[in-house]
């Protein structure tokens, strides 16, 4: 589904990714771990298409197509979703307005008519229940006045509503209490299917206790320095990253 | 490479003015220039009574002694008042159409292009419309239905003949002929506009609407609107404005007077989309307008709602004089400036009566090199026991070459007054647009969504049919704002 080959990427002229390779197939869950500043968020933004995050070499293919030449909104409509490490507040635009526009953009991309207002509300209510978000909160501005945990759950809610094929969750588990962590994990598992794939950027084993990854990678100094199975995450939890960086 | 302010500005620059076409129609235009003779000529063309000519001449003589106001935060070269033509009417209109069937088909076509069908059967149900083309009113619809309710809605030039006592009683009673430079000019040369009279106890059965269009080159438009709501009456009135795209500036100096007696209410809404000029600031309308409402009666209410997206320069402060005890004044405003547009707009709330209340909600959007000032005055006189005001004043900046300024003035002479003022300035941030895009929403739509969200407290005050229009107008104004 996603094929990253020899990717070099610069942010503000500074090279952050230095030859990164990653292959994610449909049905798989990949965990990406690694020290702060190693380029995990940079990779997420390059895939999502943030301007200013420029690939200077290498390729990124999605379903065999060159992803890097697509606008971010087209990538989203094609099924890529990024759960932000720091979700953005948009005061004045309600969560419902954003969600409806997002759903309809996707439908338009596929040549479908706009969703009926009643169907939309029913769908949103149904999904909000899964992440224990009071639908009333959705009339407020996007992430406006939401706590850290609420923002993260709201990212998962958006994901559940939009049903992407490739989910990239950038430290969605950071700063969550155990109940919220379970809710987030349930949300991810709800969408887990043979047609979909997930990339979890995380620092903690505890998320992986609930969402068992097929592959674990360590990103350090802009490259994948080690890959393995779920046991690699446990090893990292014990030993930290220093032994890998030294290697 | 990031969506820097320049990119957003690039988007904004490509906005197109869809009302910018010219209708080729033969016109009867008085040669440019202003003098007592010209005023006498206008008055004679309109076969006006002597008192009205006197009113005009007094205003003109006062105007000659006045100076263009300099305090507003707007800049433009001196206006040559002798280069403007003060009267223009479509030729085919000489004797005035008796019904819509007699209106020049070219005019009907013009309004159709603007999305304003004049044939009654095609019109929005429940909206009566008066249409002013350059200096004269060309059509008023649904006259009969309104007549049955006792409502008078007609061109003011017609009201001068048909209802002289009413016009004479109220004209200039809210905005005196020498009120300010532009109001004096308007009083001297005004040609047409709408007249509305809602008798005691009548709730106007439909929305009233006037559509203003400037077509001729080098003409000014000086319309005069007068709305009177007697005891317990209610009316909702909307005006819309467009002009062709031209390289030179054109002057528009209107006066609007509103009067409410006891328990009456007037809701006055404006969607102003005069030609704003091009990217470099060539052309566009100078919009110097005096709008004032007088809450003469107790428990009466006047609400101004305006969506100002057009004009090269906007100078406009719809105001309320809260004379009656327990009267209420409201001002809801959205103003958009980009390219080289300048707007200095706001309101005045003058609290005279006891327990008078006023609300001000101003939303300013600036993009490109647009410059915008909110200028508001809340004045509480000694007599105004228990006056209340709430002012909310928000600015949204798109890019970093535009500007927003606020000048809130207060003068309080009664210690029981309570005034609250809140102000915010925000920017459409790059990360907000990026966030929307990662959800599948294109940049242009995201900008429009954010701007509409910013304006929603004002849009909800517009009559339903027009709230949608206003949202669309903003979207069009922002069209091309994103690559
Ligand atoms: N907008 C930016 N401008 C300049 N440097 C940045 C920017 N964003 C991230 N960086 C730098 O890029 C490197 C990688 O950051 P990031 O991808 O956020 O790491 P991680 O998510 O793994 O903690 C860091 O050195 C960080 O300081
Ligand atoms: Mg990060």
Short recap of the structure:
The complex is a heterodimer of chains A (247) and B (483). With 247 residues, chain A is α/β, with parallel strands linked by helices. Helices cover 38% and strands 29% of the residues of chain A.
What features would you describe in this structure?
- Chain A has helices at 40-48, 72-77, 95-109, 117-130, 148-162, 178-191, 205-210, 230-239, 242-246, and strands at residues 2-11, 14-24, 29-33, 53-62, 65-66, 80-83, 90-94, 141-142, 166-170, 197-201, 215-220, 223-228.
- Chain A is of the alpha/beta class and 247 residues long.
- Chain A has a single domain (2-246), classed as Rossmann fold, CATH 3.40.50.300.
- In chain A, the strands form 3 sheets. In chain A, strands 6-9-10-3-11-12 form a 6-stranded mixed sheet, with helices on both faces. Chain A has a 4-stranded antiparallel sheet with strand order 2-1-4-5. In chain A, strands 7-8 form a two-stranded antiparallel ribbon.
- In chain A, strand 11 and strand 12 (223-228) form a beta hairpin.
- Chain A is globular and about 55 Å long.
- Chain A starts with a strand and ends with a helix.
- Chain B has 483 residues and is an alpha/beta fold.
- Chain B is 23% helix and 35% strand.
- Chain B has helices at residues 5-13, 36-45, 50-64, 105-113, 143-149, 156-162, 164-170, 181-189, 430-438, 443-459, 464-477; strands at residues 27-29, 88-90, 127-133, 136-140, 152-155, 194-198, 207-213, 224-229, 234-242, 249-252, 255-260, 265-272, 284-295, 301-308, 313-316, 319-322, 328-337, 342-351, 357-367, 371-380, 388-398, 403-412, 418-427.
- In chain B, the strands form 3 sheets. In chain B, strands 5, 6, 8, 10, 11, 13, 15, 16, 18, 20 and 22 form an 11-stranded mixed sheet that branches.
- In chain B, helix 2 (36-45) packs antiparallel against helix 3 (50-64) and helix 10 packs antiparallel against helix 11.
- Residues 1-15 and 120-125 of chain B have low confidence and may be disordered.
- The A-B interface holds A 48-52, 54, 71-73, 75-77, 81-82, 84, 87-94, 97-98, 101-102, 105-106, 109, 141-142, 158, 162 and B 1-3, 426, 429-432, 434-443, 445, 449-450, 452-454, 456.
- The structure holds adenosine-5'-diphosphate (ADP) and magnesium ion (MG).
- Adenosine-5'-diphosphate binds at residues 11-12, 14, 16, 34, 36-42 of chain A.
């Amino acid at each position: 589904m996603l094929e990253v080959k020899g990717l070099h990427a610069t942010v503000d002229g500074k090279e952050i990714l230095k030859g990164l390779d990653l292959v994610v197939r449909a049905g798989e869950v990949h965990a990406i771990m690694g020290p702060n500043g190693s380029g995990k968020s940079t990779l997420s933004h390059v895939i999502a298409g943030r301007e200013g995050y420029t690939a200077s070499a290498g390729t990124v293919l999605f379903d065999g197509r060159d992803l890097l030449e697509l606008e971010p909104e087209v990538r989203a409509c094609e099924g890529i979703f990024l759960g932000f490490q720091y979700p953005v507040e948009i005061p004045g635009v309600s969560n419902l307005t954003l969600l409806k526009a997002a759903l309809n953009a996707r439908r338009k991309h596929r040549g479908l008519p706009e969703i009926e207002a009643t169907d939309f509300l029913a769908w949103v209510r149904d999904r909000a229940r899964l992440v224990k978000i009071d639908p009333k909160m959705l009339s407020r501005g996007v992430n406006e006045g939401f706590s850290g945990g609420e923002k993260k759950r709201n990212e998962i809610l958006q994901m559940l509503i939009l049903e992407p094929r490739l989910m990239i969750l950038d430290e969605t588990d950071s700063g969550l209490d155990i109940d919220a962590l379970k809710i987030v994990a349930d949300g991810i598992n709800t969408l887990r299917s043979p047609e979909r794939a997930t990339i979890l950027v995380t620092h903690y084993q505890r998320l992986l206790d609930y969402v068992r990854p097929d592959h674990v990678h360590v990103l350090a100094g802009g490259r994948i320095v080690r890959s393995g199975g779920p046991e690699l995450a446990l090893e990292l939890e014990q030993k930290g990253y220093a032994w890998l960086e030294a290697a | 490479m990031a969506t820097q302010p320049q990119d957003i500005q690039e988007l904004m620059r490509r906005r197109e003015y869809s009302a910018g076409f010219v209708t080729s129609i033969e016109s009867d235009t008085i040669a440019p220039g202003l003098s007592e003779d010209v005023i006498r000529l206008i008055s004679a063309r309109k076969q006006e009574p002597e008192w009205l000519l006197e009113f005009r001449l007094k205003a003109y003589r006062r105007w000659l002694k006045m100076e263009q106001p300099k305090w507003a935060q707007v800049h433009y070269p001196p206006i040559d008042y002798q280069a403007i033509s003060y009267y223009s009417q479509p030729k085919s209109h000489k004797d005035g159409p008796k019904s819509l069937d007699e209106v020049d088909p070219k005019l009907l076509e013009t309004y159709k292009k603007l999305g304003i069908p004049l044939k009654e059967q095609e019109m929005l149900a429940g909206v009566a419309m008066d249409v002013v083309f350059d200096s004269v009113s060309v059509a008023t619809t649904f006259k009969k239905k309104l007549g049955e309710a006792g409502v008078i809605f007609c061109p003011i030039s017609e009201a001068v003949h048909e209802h002289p006592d009413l016009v004479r009683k109220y004209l200039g009673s809210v905005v005196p002929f020498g009120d300010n430079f532009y109001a004096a000019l308007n009083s001297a040369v005004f040609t047409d506009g709408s007249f509305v009279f809602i008798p005691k106890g009548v709730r106007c059965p439909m929305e009233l609407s006037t559509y203003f269009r400037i077509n001729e080159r080098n003409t000014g438009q000086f319309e005069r609107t007068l709305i009177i709501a007697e005891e317990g009456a209610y009316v909702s009135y909307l005006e819309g404005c467009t002009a062709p795209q031209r390289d030179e500036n054109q002057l528009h100096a209107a006066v609007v007077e509103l009067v409410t007696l006891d328990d009456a209410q007037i809701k006055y809404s404006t969607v102003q989309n005069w030609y704003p000029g091009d990217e470099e600031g060539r052309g566009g309308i100078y919009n110097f307008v005096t709008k004032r409402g007088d809450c003469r009666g107790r428990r009466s209410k006047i609400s101004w709602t305006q969506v100002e997206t057009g004009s090269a320069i906007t100078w406009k402060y719809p105001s309320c004089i809260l004379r009656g005890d327990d009267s209420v004044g409201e001002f809801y405003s959205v103003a958009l400036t980009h390219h080289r547009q300048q707007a200095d707009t706001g309101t005045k709330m003058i609290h005279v009566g006891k327990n008078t209340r006023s609300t001000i909600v101003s939303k300013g959007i600036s993009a490109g090199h647009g410059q915008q000032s909110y200028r508001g005055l809340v004045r509480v006189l000694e007599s105004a026991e228990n006056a209340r005001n709430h002012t909310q004043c928000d600015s949204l900046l798109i890019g970093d070459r535009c500007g927003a300024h606020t000048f809130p003035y207060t003068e309080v002479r009664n210690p029981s007054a309570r005034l609250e003022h809140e102000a915010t300035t925000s920017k459409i941030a790059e990360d907000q647009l990026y966030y929307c895009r990662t959800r599948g929403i294109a940049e242009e739509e995201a900008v429009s969504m954010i701007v509409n969200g910013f304006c929603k407290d004002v849009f909800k005050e517009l009559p339903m049919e027009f709230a949608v229009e206003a949202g669309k107008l903003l979207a069009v104004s922002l069209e091309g704002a994103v690559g």
